Amino acid sequence: MNRSQELKRLTTYIPGFDLISNGGLPAGRTTLVCGGPGSAKTIFAGQFLAAGIQHAGEPGCFVTFEERPEDIRRNLSSFGWDITRWERENKWIFVDGSLHPKDEPVTVGDYDLGGLMARVTHAVKKIGAKRISLDSIGAMLVQFGLPAIIRRELYRAVWLLREMDVTSIITAEHTGNGEAPVEEYVTDNVIILRNTLEDEKRRRTLEILKFRGASHLKGEFPFTIAEDRGIILLPLSSIELRQKSSDKRITSGIPELDSMCGGGFYRDSVVLVSGATGTGKTLTATQFLSALGENEKGLLFAFEESRDQLYRNALGWGIDFPKLEAGGRLRILCEYPEVAGPEDHLLRIKKQIEEFQPTRVAVDGLSALERISTLRTFREFVLALTSYLKDKQIAGLFTSTTPSLLGGSTVTEAHISSVTDSIILLRYVEAFGEMRRGIAVLKMRGSQHDRTIREFFIDSKGMHVGEPFRGISGILSGNFTHSATSELQTLQSLFERTDAEEL
Amino acid sequence: MASVGPPRGPDLLLRLFITGNSQRSLRAIEAVQGLCSQYLAGARVEIIDVLENPDRAESEKILATPTLIRQIPGPPRRLVGDLCEPQRVIQLLGLKEHVRSKEA
Questions:
Q1: In this complex, do B64 and A144 lie within 8 Å of one another by their Cβ atoms?
Q2: A103 to chain B: nearest residue by CA?
Q3: Given the DSSP bridges, would you call strands A462-468 and A454-459 parallel, antiparallel or unpaired?
Q4: How is residue A38 annotated by DSSP?
Q5: Does residue A92 sit in helix, strand or coil?
Q6: Does A40 contact B at CB distance below 8 Å?
Q7: pLDDT for residue A293
Q8: DSSP A384-420
Q9: Is the omega angle on the peptide bond into residue A367 within 30 degrees of 0, that is, cis?
Q10: What ipTM is given for this predicted complex?
Q11: pLDDT tens figures, A260-311
Q12: Cα gap A212→A184, rounded to integer Å
């Protein structure tokens, strides 16, 4: 028992799963996959085999107790898995343990699952299966009605599978009342799939409860079911660890802002621009994307405005979006946040990035996504997107709308500010009966930056940053107070630099 | 008990699926043989070991062993277990009319 040797792993090729499991399922072992109704157990079981066939050339055996093979063939074909063809090519084999209701067995005395095991062994040998999925134990328990025998047999089955040197998955119903199903004690490895309702929003997660003798990441990981690819996990924390960081700077498109940031944004940094409606967030994103250097490409995801609106806005600031798009330097995608969940949005964004290979990505109206998700999901979304961009060394700029015109912060900010590298605030400033605009760099990870709040103007060429506001305090909170000039000067002479303070 | 003598041929075919020489298999074989010699004189019994004939297990979709199938007369009826109670086996498989006690 005190052998510290790590178990061998079988790479599953289920997107994201191998990351959170530190390399895949324990090879040659059985893993129990528990979940309530509709938690995607059957999809997981099917994908385990399909991914093995597609990515590793490993044949698989599907033992079904609930649905008939023809149902499974049909249901899983929507993910692009051609099971019928794989069956012809001896890559996939079914063992049909589903029973017609009229065949319900009547029992007299003790029995075992010798028939099933002989069939599974036979099937595995026939095609040289490396992976087995059994779906699901609950259906078998219902068929026979004697849980004690089934559990004893399950135990034997797990041993048999181990001797055959195949890696297997057994799915089981989980009532979800916190009580662990007895099956959990049969296998060394347990995964839980959840499909819960949080704040009226569906959320799917996967958690590795235990891998005996093998490490894995802990906690729930959100996943989505993509139409054409099946289960895709969004492993957040694991990507974070691999982030490289660059000290190359790029321009924000606004020279004065560059100098406020100490020489521009970092090439692989993610910047959050926060402000009330009309303060110039879309402008910041537009200038960021139009300042493309040589060999640079920009991608804009807009969640709040239509393409025409964006074109018109940009033109008003002297930027020709259609021309940039026609030249292949820019791609704009407008989407309603409501069309999909955050996980799906993330997938779409990633897909676009993979296709277009941009060096700059802006998400205009990130806060709009907040409407369609729970706080936790939203935070995970931002975290995953940020990690992805950094991993690809892409410069990112997200904009977020504050609900109040003056001051204030958003839930968005509160939850993602620690994730982004830099935060730029755009604020309305009321000064002597006039509404003016102020810009401040709140945070700039790994660099010195300007700590003043400067006034800026918008004209037909875009944003121009001017002098710091003097004599006004409380801009960030929205509770302005005006101090007399003399007093200010006194203070300034007292403290030459106040840069040391970190926000 | 009234004996109803069926007039012709293989009017009762029983198939017993077992797994190798396990205790349960042996008990079931013994039970079926006892059943036949004691009550079902004209019955034909086929014993199939799933370890040797996994294809048969597959085509009959056998999960549990021992499984006893009343193949003829149809439609087939199934019984799972080591068949430790002969009277229940007769009752559950609907074999009452086939019973011919030794004395008859």
A1: yes
A2: B78
A3: antiparallel
A4: T
A5: strand
A6: no
A7: 85
A8: HHHHHHHHTT-EEEEEEE-SSSSS---HHHHHHTTTS
A9: no
A10: 0.86
A11: 988 889 888 889 998 888 889 999 999 999 998 888 999 999 998 899 999 9
A12: 12
Across the A:B interface, residue pairs with CB atoms under 8 Å apart total 99
- For residues A420-431, b (16+ Cβ closer than 10 Å) or e, as one string? bbbbbbbbbbeb
- H helices present in A209-272, as ranges: 236-240, 255-260
H/E stretch holding B18 reads strand B13-18
d(Cα A252, Cα A438) in Å, to the nearest integer?
17
What is the phi/psi pair of residue A403, to 5°? -70, -30
Separation between Cα atoms, residue B19 and residue A117, nearest integer Å = 10
Using an 8 Å CB-CB cutoff, list chain B residues near A113. 63-65
Alpha-helical segments (H) within A208-271: 236-240, 255-260
Chain B residues with CB-CB distance to A108 below 8 A = 79-85, 88-89, 92
Of A33, A48, A27, A26, give the one whose Cα is nearest residue A212. A26
A287 to A54, A230, A378, A443: CA distances (angstroms): 44, 38, 26, 20
Q: How do A395-401 and A330-334 pair as beta strands?
A: unpaired
Is residue A66 flagged as an active site residue? yes
Q: Which two tokens stand for residue A297?
A: 């490409």
Token pair belonging to A290: 């139009």
**Residue with structure tokens 């990870």?**
A445
Q: Which amino acid is at A2?
A: N
Residue A484 tokens, joined: 């007399």
Question: Is residue A304 annotated as part of the catalytic site, yes or no?
Answer: yes
> Looking at A269-421, which runs of residues are DSSP E strands?
270-275, 298-302, 330-334, 360-364, 395-401
Say how far residue A455 (Cα) sits from the centre of its chain: 37
Peptide bond into B86 cis (omega under 30): no
- Assigned token pair, A134: 């059994």
- DSSP conformational letter for A8: P
Say what the pLDDT of residue A486 is.
Answer: 56
Closest CA to A21 of A32, A30, A10, A36: A10
Question: Where is mean pLDDT largest: A40-54, B28-42, B78-92?
Answer: A40-54
pTM value is 0.70
Neighbours of A244 (CB within 10 A): 8
Which tokens sit at B36? 């036949």
Angle at A136 between CA A132 and CA A138, to 5 degrees: 150
